[in-house]
Amino acid sequence: MSRKRKIDKKIFILAAVAVVTAVCGIWLLLTPRIERDYVYAAQETMLDELMYDIQNASEMPDAAAVVVEYAEYAETETEPETQSEDVYILDYAEDYASEYEYVAAIYEPTYEPIPDTAFPNAITGIGILTIETINLRLPIAEGVDEATLRIAPGRVPQTAQIGDTGNAVIAGHRNYAFGSMFNRLGELVLGDIVHYQARNGEMMEFEVFEVAIIEPHDQVAFLQPVNESIITLYTCTPIRTATHRLIIRAQRIS
Fold first, then answer.
1. To 5 degrees, how large is the angle CA 58–CA 134–CA 39?
2. pTM
3. Tens-digit pLDDT profile for residues 126-172
4. Which of 1, 42, 114, 253 has a CA that sits 20 to 30 A from residue 153's CA?
């Protein structure tokens, strides 16, 4: 092989390496944006589906009332029974042991690579979480597998249903992008209001009564109260290093 052909071959190899390096660099730069756009689109799809069910659920009582009136099943109107609700704020010093119990199975988030088959159509949306103070509006899914948490926060299955007596733990990622997922959860303070609307249309209001940072394996986040309805928002902290867990507890007030 002549010297000129050797030089041409080296130039070709260097050019090929340069092109591959440039393509890889561009891909690495674009990947976070592509992923972010995909997640936002999937969330909007979930929110649209949830709002469709919520609106249909809110129309059902009127339709039922028309049917009942037409059939003349109800001759008299009765006032629905009302149930008073005592507001209970946890006093750790006096009532911690007696008012809480441990659940059998505890959740600890894993951080395995996201599978290529993770698509939002396999995710079940159960409601919409809204926190006005941090401009948060997110669909809430059922379950905490990685494919689900890629798209939306999820209810830990071993914990209470949201709104029922007990502690419903909602786990979500602390994405790097400002305002994404639970990124701004650390801004919440005592007294902030958290709204949740279930897929059946029921609206719930919770008031934050505790903000705490715990060790990753601390099971306090999953304690179940026996006489009140609370939610616990659960995520990693600090952002990027994720050495601990941030929990926000809020008690149902309506």
1. 75
2. 0.68
3. 999 999 999 999 999 999 999 999 999 999 999 999 999 999 999 99
4. 253
